[in-house]
Automatic annotation (TrEMBL):
<feature type="binding site">
    <location>
        <position position="56"/>
    </location>
    <ligand>
        <name>S-adenosyl-L-methionine</name>
    </ligand>
</feature>
<dbReference type="GO" id="GO:0008119">
    <property type="term" value="F:thiopurine S-methyltransferase activity"/>
</dbReference>
<keyword id="KW-0808">Transferase</keyword>
<dbReference type="InterPro" id="IPR025835">
    <property type="entry name" value="Thiopurine_S-MeTrfase"/>
</dbReference>
<dbReference type="InterPro" id="IPR008854">
    <property type="entry name" value="TPMT"/>
</dbReference>
<comment type="similarity">
    <text>Belongs to the class I-like SAM-binding methyltransferase superfamily. TPMT family.</text>
</comment>
<keyword id="KW-0489">Methyltransferase</keyword>
<dbReference type="GO" id="GO:0032259">
    <property type="term" value="P:methylation"/>
</dbReference>
<protein>
    <recommendedName>
        <fullName>thiopurine S-methyltransferase</fullName>
        <ecNumber>2.1.1.67</ecNumber>
    </recommendedName>
</protein>
<dbReference type="Pfam" id="PF05724">
    <property type="entry name" value="TPMT"/>
</dbReference>
<feature type="binding site">
    <location>
        <begin position="121"/>
        <end position="122"/>
    </location>
    <ligand>
        <name>S-adenosyl-L-methionine</name>
    </ligand>
</feature>
<dbReference type="GO" id="GO:0005737">
    <property type="term" value="C:cytoplasm"/>
</dbReference>
<feature type="binding site">
    <location>
        <position position="77"/>
    </location>
    <ligand>
        <name>S-adenosyl-L-methionine</name>
    </ligand>
</feature>
<keyword id="KW-0949">S-adenosyl-L-methionine</keyword>
<feature type="binding site">
    <location>
        <position position="139"/>
    </location>
    <ligand>
        <name>S-adenosyl-L-methionine</name>
    </ligand>
</feature>
<keyword id="KW-0963">Cytoplasm</keyword>
<dbReference type="InterPro" id="IPR029063">
    <property type="entry name" value="SAM-dependent_MTases_sf"/>
</dbReference>
Amino acid sequence: TNIGSQKDRVVSEEEWLQKWEMGNIGFHKEQGHLLLQKYLDVLLNGRSGLRIFFPLCGKAVEMKWLADMGHSVVGVEISEQALKDFFAEHGLPYCEEPVPEISGAKRLQSTSGNISLYCCSIYDLSSSIVGKFDGVWDRGALVAVNPRDRQRYVSLMMTLMEKNSSYLLVTVSYDPNKHKGPPFYVPESEIKSLFG
């Protein structure tokens, strides 16, 4: 599969932080994603009170939407500003605490307790820190991960999933020779080989 010049492209954590600082966040959606609404029953699979993971969550509005339905939401994001913006924009009080297992990491948790957002690199997380999840909403994570790190990312995600987890993944399709990404082009064949 030809992913063009993207194969070796690397976007650093500093670049992502800069995007948030500059407000260059065209990837953020003010409205809940239509595909999550459309496939919500696939994610929930008739179950209630699920633990749902948002990798590279930014300030995704769907986190509050799912928490309001009675689910427990956990997200991870490198930008502390994004996480604080999430709580501020929804008027949600929260407390902040260090994560002892991860140097420099913080956990911002809604005072209601059903939204926990980790401020750190996703690669610093493990199931011993965040537990396992019944569902994953990957709207902008796999396509944001540097192409060379995809296998590492998917391997981590597999360790965070319960046996009967549902994983909803949104990707973008375009000619990777015409756009350097992110979002990166992840061909369907690669998704199948990554997730098995």
